[in-house]
Specification:
The protein is mainly beta. The protein is built from two helices and 13 strands; from the N terminus they run E-E-E-H-E-E-E-E-E-E-H-E-E-E-E.
């Protein structure tokens, strides 16, 4: 399942939305039609996400969570770097994303699929984690970047309902 942005906070002045709200600019991969841009070092944008579209009772386990992104450097010869971390729940490792320099083409970069909700690899994901997920993007350096998509992909195992149970090799 894909979770889309529903809010943003932080250095919203430095992470400028070219049209509408920050969350509207990050909810689809449409290149220069809508994006957030930043060129200031160490400026961050925290993006919150809509609750899951799948009911809790329909999920047996949450297997992994990762971010999906699309962006580009606006510089002619130098890439742009952004650190992306799962900000809520706390305790996750940051990943540095380096978007290639290109005058118009966006690059898709996806995060590492994380089977645990913390960097210590001790706590499995819970449904409550999904209801409160947020990502934090922090700009590295002063080479301008445009990000047009920042979503969260949740891989899960479906719960088996009694209606679909298999008994003695036959479905009833």
């Amino acid at each position: 399942m894909i979770l889309l942005p529903d809010g943003a906070s932080g250095h919203t002045f430095h992470w400028a939305a070219n049209t509408g709200t920050h969350e509207d600019c990050l909810d689809d991969d449409n290149g220069d039609t809508s994006y957030v841009a930043c060129s200031s070092n160490n400026r961050y944008l925290t993006v919150t996400y809509a609750n899951p579209s799948v009911a809790e009772e329909d999920i047996a386990s949450i297997d992994s969570v990762r971010f999906l992104s699309s962006g580009r450097s606006t510089h002619r010869t130098t890439d742009s770097e952004v650190d992306i971390v799962i900000a809520n729940p706390l305790g996750n490792q940051s990943e540095t994303v380096s978007y290639d320099n290109h005058p118009s083409s966006y690059e898709t970069i996806n995060g590492t699929a994380r089977p645990y909700s913390n960097a210590l690899l001790t706590t499995p994901w819970s449904y409550a984690n999904l209801e409160n997920l947020s990502l934090k993007m922090t700009k590295n350096g002063t080479i301008a970047v445009r990000v047009s998509y920042l979503a969260i992909e949740v891989t899960y195992t479906e719960a088996v309902s009694a209606d679909n149970a298999t008994f003695f090799g036959a479905n009833f």
